[in-house]
């Protein structure tokens, strides 16, 4: 049957209603709904009041299944979003943190110096010496620490002892030990290590030494946690 202006669906069939009236059942009775809208707690019905359609009641279908499906899909989506957020937090917590610290204030930037190649014939790396007769060894011993000795200037006045001054790890068996100044043993001997000049640096497996202006030597471990600065104006360790 073709659709008309007064046509309404009843299940899968279509009926013609000449005079549809919207009514609501409340407390077991049928009463006509006024213009203010449906009353709370009632059930809306469409009743035909025309010829040939008296008493015919048309119930409006409520899309409950569609709403339930949409709510279910929304719940799954929200659970998925929460799961992804929790996974991201877990991965960030499990990721390894960097152990590289910032060098202390006053330490030169090792990136400003040119690395010396160990491929040259005169190379004695990781050993080198400066024009001030200070010899150093990078990656010395089992812990790959740095040792410098010779004509060290600017040492603390509290440093006692006799012999050739040097700077090395306080405890060579501990990888995270600070550097200290020492003065013991025989007098300083001349070194035949490769000579370096200002503006150069030596990069080892576990440390870097740079030669700067004003007779400065600065060395630091790979983790930037410990090292030393040698200079006539004042040498210091960390």
Short description:
The chain has 238 residues and is mainly beta. The protein is 13% helix and 34% strand.
Structure write-up:
- This protein is mainly β and 238 residues long.
- It folds into two domains: 7-59, no CATH class; 110-237, no CATH class.
- It is built from one helix and 18 strands.
- The protein has one helix at residues 64-94; strands spanning 7-10, 13-16, 20-26, 29-32, 43-48, 57-59, 114-115, 127-129, 134-140, 145-150, 165-169, 179-183, 194-195, 200-203, 207-212, 216-221, 227-230, 236-237.
- It has a six-stranded mixed sheet with strand order 7-14-15-16-17-18, with no helix packed on it. It has a six-stranded mixed sheet with strand order 12-11-10-9-8-13, with no helix packed on it.
- A hairpin with an 8-residue loop joins β5 (43-48) and β6 (57-59).
- The longest helix is centred in the N-terminal third of the chain and has 31 residues, at 64-94.
- Mean pLDDT is 75; it is low at 1-15, 27-41 and 51-55.
Largest sheet: 6 strands, mixed
Oligomer: single chain
Q: Which percent range describes the beta-strand content? A: 25-35%
The Rg value, from CA coordinates, equals 45 Å
Kindly state the mean pLDDT as a whole number? Answer: 75
Low-pLDDT residue spans: 1-15, 27-41, 51-55
Structural class: mainly beta
> How many alpha or pi helices?
1
- Following the backbone from N to C, one meets helices and strands in this order, namely EEEEEEHEEEEEEEEEEEE
Shape: elongated
State the end-to-end CA separation: 96 Å
Please indicate the count of domains.
2
Spatial sequence of strands, sheet with the most strands: 7-14-15-16-17-18
- Helical fraction equals 10-25%
**DSSP E strands, number:** 18
């Amino acid at each position: 049957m073709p659709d008309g202006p007064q046509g309404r669906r009843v299940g899968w069939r279509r009926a013609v209603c000449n005079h549809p009236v919207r009514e609501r059942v409340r407390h077991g009775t049928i009463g006509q709904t006024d213009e203010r809208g449906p009353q709370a707690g009632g059930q809306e019905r469409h009743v035909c009041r025309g010829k040939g359609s008296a008493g015919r009641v048309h119930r409006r279908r409520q899309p409950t299944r569609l709403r339930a499906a949409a709510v279910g899909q929304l719940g799954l989506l929200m659970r998925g979003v929460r799961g992804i957020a929790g996974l991201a937090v877990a991965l960030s917590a499990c990721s390894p943190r960097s152990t590289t610290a910032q060098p202390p204030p006053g330490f030169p930037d090792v990136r400003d110096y040119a690395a010396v190649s160990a491929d040259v014939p005169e190379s004695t790396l990781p050993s080198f010496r400066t024009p001030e007769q200070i010899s150093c060894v990078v990656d010395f011993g089992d812990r790959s620490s740095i040792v410098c000795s010779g004509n060290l200037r600017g040492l603390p006045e509290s440093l006692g002892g006799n012999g050739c001054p040097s700077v090395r790890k306080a405890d060579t068996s501990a990888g995270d030990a600070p550097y200290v100044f020492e003065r013991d043993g025989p007098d300083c001997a001349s070194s035949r290590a490769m000579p370096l000049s200002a503006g150069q640096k030596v990069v080892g497996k576990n440390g870097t030494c740079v030669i700067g202006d004003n007779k400065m030597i600065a060395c630091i471990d790979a983790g930037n946690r410990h090292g030393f600065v040698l200079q006539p104006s004042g040498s210091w360790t960390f």
